[in-house]
Design a protein that fits this description.
The protein has a single domain, classed as Growth Hormone, Chain: A (Up-down Bundle). 80% of the residues lie in helices and 0% in strands. It is built from five helices and no strands. The radius of gyration is 17 Å and the shape is elongated. The protein starts with 14 loop residues before the first helix and ends with a helix.
């Protein structure tokens, strides 16, 4: 038997949905984990930067979750990944040329907004597209 991962037989979802879900989840997880390594030592500015990502995640999950319920998970997923991608790019560029810590914290808030909106939307989107018999396994593998 051929056990090639790219065949994904028996999942009931298009391979692209599964692969994009896993890639999106990996990028978000990497961003959330790397925040603690990139921040300066704990002082007022370091605390502001550390607080901005979880605060953005809270508001992102709240607002994009409601958007996903009203207008569909695909739109909310695209918006969350757009916020995450653009804010991450600006944050990387900003590390070289931004002198303002407040602007850097705002960019970290937008990264958190995209992450917070992406996590619940991605898992729900994947659960909708996977057969019920393997839904739990797919979500566990995703997380």
């Amino acid at each position: 038997m051929d056990y090639e991962v790219t065949q994904m037989k028996g999942f009931g979802a298009p391979k692209s949905v599964l692969i994009l879900s896993f890639i999106s989840w990996a990028f978000i997880a990497m961003a959330v984990l790397s925040i603690s390594f990139a921040n300066p030592p704990a002082n007022l500015i370091g605390g502001l930067l550390r607080f901005s990502v979880p605060a953005g995640m809270f508001f992102g999950a709240l607002m994009l979750g409601m958007l996903a319920d009203k207008h569909g998970r695909k739109l909310a997923w695209l918006i969350s990944m757009s916020f995450f991608s653009v804010a991450s790019l600006l944050c990387c560029i900003g590390m070289l040329c931004i002198e303002s810590n407040i602007l850097f914290a705002a960019l970290c808030f937008l990264i958190g907004f995209g992450c917070g909106g992406g996590l619940p939307v991605i898992s729900s989107f994947l659960a909708e597209h996977v057969k019920p018999s393997v839904r739990g396994s797919a979500i566990v593998v995703l997380e």
